[in-house]
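**Backbone shape codes:**
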Amino acid sequence: MEPFTIFTTALSGIKTATDIAIKLQELNKATDNVELKEQLISLREALVESKSQILDVKEILQEKDAKIKGLEERLERDEKLSFNEALGCLETDENGKIIKYCSNCHAEGKYIQL
């Protein structure tokens, strides 16, 4: 499920919980305990579902943040590489030393020194 859908569902659950809480305040004034207990159970279920959905969104966002960080690190590293046509490999200059990398491996997301 997409984060936006989960977030929308979570907000809907929170709204339901709020509506139930308002109804509980009204019921507390003029109703029997059975209906009040049923409403409390509904409130707890709605809050648990909302919490679960929000935690799902948090997990998805953390995964996306980690993936973005990895891609940014790879992009930063790739910006330092240049293609050596004569040798058919990628290379970079690190502290005055030329380091060569396999271009085929790099296409698979690996940095294998030659």
Remarks:
- Residues 3-72 form one domain.
- The CA atoms of residues 92 and 98 lie 6 Å apart.
- The helical segments are 3-30, 33-79, 103-107.
- The chain has two domains: 3-72, 80-114.
